[in-house]
Each structure stands twice: as structure tokens, then as C-alpha cells.
Amino acid sequence: MKVSQGCIAVWALLSAVGGYASSATDSEDPSASTSTSTNDNINPRVPPGCSLVMAPSSIPNSGWGVFSMVDSKVGDPIIAGDLVIQVADLNVTHASDMRRIVYDYAWNAAETGGQYEGINVLSVIPGIGMLANGASEEGILPVLEPSVDEAGVTRHKSPGAGAFTHYFNYTFHFNKPLVAGNEILVNYGPGYFQMRNNQMANEKEEDEEEGAKQPQLLHRSLESLHETGFCLDNLKPGKSTIEHAGRGAFASRGQAKGSVVAPVPVLPITKREAMDVTRKKQVSKKEFAETTTKQLLTNYCYGHPKSSVLLFPYSPMVNLINHSSKRSNVRLQWSSKSQPTLEHLQDINKKPTASTDGLLLELVATEDIQEGEEVLLDYGPEWQAAWEKHVKQWEPYPFEYAPGYVLDEAVPVLGTQEEVQGSKPYPPNLLTSCFYPYVHPETKPSEGEDDEKNDPTRNITSAEWRHMPGIFELRNLRPCTIMQRYEVEKDKDSSSGDSEDPSNFYYTVVIRNRYGLAPQERILPGQMHVVTRVPRRAIRFTDKVYTTDQHLQNAFRKEIGLSDELFRNWMDLDGKSDSEEKDL
Ligand SMILES: *[C@@H]1O[C@H](CO)[C@@H](O)[C@H](O)[C@H]1NC(C)=O
Ligand SMILES: *[C@@H]1O[C@H](CO)[C@@H](O)[C@H](O)[C@H]1NC(C)=O
Ligand SMILES: *[C@@H]1O[C@H](CO)[C@@H](O)[C@H](O)[C@H]1NC(C)=O
Ligand SMILES: *[C@@H]1O[C@H](CO)[C@@H](O)[C@H](O)[C@H]1NC(C)=O
């Protein structure tokens, strides 16, 4: 059982979704479903040199676990970094149909820098972030942030814009040495997320308490891992060779035809409407336009036109695999003979203990694959048709736009608010943000906002920016307005005297609020908090809410199609999923 991330951004949503129905005690024992041929010496699932495997966890009733096959040092990456998919403003009406993902697997988006993607944002982190079991202390730490970029696919040039996530390379590193055969545990607990607010700490699940009591070094013999495991590092990330596709997955070692390239455990979303997002946009003073789009997560799910079910694959790198009907070199097959019924899939979202046994696919090579070759899957005829239609209809974005990370590189020395309003405006989708952990001086924020507005002595506070451990965690990033820029007093020798050198300047800023802050982190109405001596490296351009490519109205949305054969248990619709074809 994975431990809930119990995060700030999600708590409001979760209370709307409600808890799991309490009942059922079926245990999650994946070993039952792994009895496919392991003595097959042509297709070993754990090839020589494999450094990481998925196998039944050494913690009882904990489903799958991730194990190191080699000794590892502190600071080594566990595996290449994976994607982060930001789920903004989940559809509350249907969120209970993906409760397993939300409750047991999603992370607080402020941990991955996704907090500006919406009002309530969850980060789905496939790979180590979902597959490894949790321990509340001394686990593996992720890097502080994923890389963010468009992979060369821009809204001005490519119909692929907004069709894949910009957050990638989210890498987990070892924070203590491991011996071959050790199970890898990720630290999900409040010990790591020190800034997490108390409210959430109180809501932490019982599982977490249990996790804390687990011995820290859990082990399986290498023989048993060879027997029951699946190799996790046959794939590595890279830039796709397919036009408009962005990133892709590549073979990190040669694969013989018929071998299992990757295990693909999946979690169910039992109603595809859970992906629908309706948003009201103000078009004039009185008028609002309603738009409906689909979550970006849709594009990473498996589905079938005759089914209401979507399946989200969550093992490392598999979400990077792109489509080709002609050049595909892998296919999916179920690992076990029988799949759960539709009712059982629904139970998985109703009961925390409902088993996910049987929800394991294998990605199998359909031909010999060379090391370094791109791994491509046929997403099916519906996907192909939808993509062709999209490319035909697509029009480039007509307005000025630059993402935050581009401006950060382009603008080493920042203008003040006054300068920016004048001659040098930044693109309208951007705001400046500062790394600054503000906590309201009072323990309990008062509700009497009017009184505070009228108290002249309390409305401006100020502080000097100071470097402290953890200050560059993404959760500390909040909007700030730059009021003043001044030169750093340095001794003459060390100063470069270069007016473009960012380290020559400090800034005075006014700190502002963003969505998803805890009450004690909010600047109260009528209050102003000024921070002086802020260095450039503590200031970033960030994209305003709903402005990044994943929110584009004309972004491509379509789930990956699985065959009738693979989906046969869950065909509950007549097949005309008209919501798919709706013109936006
Ligand atoms: C991914 O992150 C690692 C550090 O965790 C870094 O060394 C590497 O350059 C990054 N790769 C990309 C493509 O950003
Ligand atoms: C590449 O894969 C991603 C994720 O599955 C998908 O969103 C995107 O549309 C794909 N692009 C192409 C051109 O296949
Ligand atoms: C949730 O989905 C339904 C059905 O697709 C849609 O009508 C509704 O507007 C959505 N709600 C939100 C908040 O997006
Ligand atoms: C501070 O309080 C005074 C008196 O109530 C008010 O006039 C002023 O606008 C307040 N300043 C700010 C920045 O809110």
C-alpha cells in the first residue's frame, strides 16, 4: 500500500471526494499474478546488467516494490528521471472514479513546481514516485525539481503543443548506501516535507504510522528477484525522433524479439468523465464563456472506445513511449491470464484495500530492438485518426507568448514594476515569483479582515531575504512584485562591474499570495510584506495559472487505444463516445 501524500493542494478536493467506503480486507499480493514463465532462458525478464527491478514488496501486503540489483552509493540516481504530469482542478463530480490515484499516489504539486497550473493541482509522478513503497523516515529523496521545457514543440509552430507534459527528468537519488537486493523506500513523510502544514500532518493516514515502524533495510535475495522480478531500466528517456512528439523512450540495452521490455502496472480511472474540465472564462464585464477540455493525463492513459474505463500506467519511462503504426516495435499484453471485472475496478476506487492484482501489463518487443533505438507502440486506429484530424485543424497560437523558463534565461537583470510598466513589458502570461517561506506572525489568522484594514500600525511588515536550508524548495515559490533594484556593495576586487551580471544586484520585493497556500502562509488583506536584499537567483519568471501549453484550447487530447482483446472485460459502452469528437 502506498502512503498518501496527503497534501495541501488536495485536501479541499479530498474532503469533497470523501473517504473510501470502509470494508473489505483482501490483501494485495502481486506474487499471485507473476507466475508467467521465469525459467525461459531466451526471454529473461531480468537481463544481465539490470540494476533495478520491480518485484513483490518485502513489506507484507504492500503490492509491488522496487529493488536495487547493485550496491549503490549516496547521491546516485536510482534511475533516469521521469515525467511529472500536473493534474489541475480535478473534476470534483467524478473524482471519486480515480480515487486510488488521488489518494494513494498523487503528490502535492508544490513539491514539483506545478502549483501555478491551477487552483488545486496534483502531481502524478510515474516511476519511482508511484511504484516504490513509502517510509516516513530516511527514505530516498527526490531532486528538488523536475526540468521544465517544451522539448522544441512550441504553440507557435507545432500541433504537438500542449499534448505532453513539460515537466520531466524528476530524479530520485539514494540518500544512503544500499546493498544489492535492498528494497527502495521513498520518504513520503512530513519529516522530509518540513514545511508541510500541520493540518495535513494531522490528516496523515494510519498506513504512514505503520510505515514508520517498518525496519528500514528490507531485502530480498538476488535469486528471488531474478525469479519474480521485472527489469525497470531497459528504457531511458530522450528526445523523440517523431515530429511534434516531444520526448520519447529509448532502449538502454538491446532487446530480443519476444522479451519483456518493461512491466506496466496500471491503475483504473473508472469513468472517463473524470478527465473533463469545465472552466468559466470572463470574456467581458458580464459575460462568461464556458469551455470544456480534458486533463493532460488523458493522453497518458490506455482506453477503448467501447469502455468508460481508462487505465493509467505508472512504471518508470513507459509514459514516454510514443506512437507509430508503421514503426512500432513493442506491443502490450496482460501479464496474468485473467483481469478483474468492471465491478472490481470500481471497487479499487472505493476500497483502499481492494487488490490491484491482475492489473499488470507487459511491454513486449515485437522485433529485435537495438540499444539506443526509439521504442514505439501502436496507439491504435482511433488515436491515429484523431491525431490526423487534429493536425489538419490545428492553427498556431496568434499571440505573443514565452514560457517562464525562457525569460529566466533571457533576462538576467530584472526590471522594477515601474520600469516594466513603461518601456520593457514582459509577455502577459508571466509573473515574477520569489523563493520566500512566509508564515504569518500570528498563530491563528483572524477572520476579522475589516478590522485589520483599519489598523494603520500593522499593515506593512518587512524582512531581509536570507539563505536558509530548504529555501529553494518549489513550495516556497510565490508571486512577488519587484519594487526596487540596487547594486550590491562589494569590495572592488571581486566586483565584475558588469551591468548584466545578475549577482551585482539585489531587489526589494512585495510578497503576494498564490492558490494552494495554507492559511498561515497567506498575506492577510490590507497587509503588505516587503522583503529586501533578494538576489536574482531567488526570483523566477513563472507562468500564470492556466497559461501553459497544457491548458491550450486546441491541445490534442486522446487516450492511447488498446485492442478489443486487451480490454474485453470492460466494454460497457456502445462505442460512440461522442464526447471525444466534440469540436471545441
Ligand atoms: C536531468 O537531471 C540530472 C540531475 O538530476 C542532470 O544531471 C541532467 O542534466 C538532467 N537532464 C536534462 C535533460 O535536463
Ligand atoms: C507522444 O506521446 C505523448 C504521450 O503518450 C502524447 O501525448 C503525444 O500526443 C504523442 N505524440 C505523437 C506525435 O505521437
Ligand atoms: C465534470 O464533468 C462533467 C461531465 O463531463 C461536466 O459537465 C462538468 O462541468 C465537469 N465539472 C468540472 C468542475 O469541470
Ligand atoms: C494601512 O492602513 C491604513 C489605515 O487603515 C490605510 O489607509 C492604508 O491603505 C493601509 N495600507 C495598506 C497597504 O493596506
TrEMBL record:
Entry-linked InterPro entries: SET_dom (IPR001214), SET_dom_sf (IPR046341)
Top-level taxonomic group: Eukaryota
Biased composition regions of type Polar residues, renumbered to the chain: 24-42
Signal peptide boundaries: 1-21
Gene3D superfamilies: SET domain
Start and end residues of each stretch annotated as Disordered: 24-47
Short name of one Pfam family: SET
Domain (SET): residue spans on this chain: 233-380
Keywords, sorted A to Z: Signal
Name this polypeptide is given: Guanylate cyclase
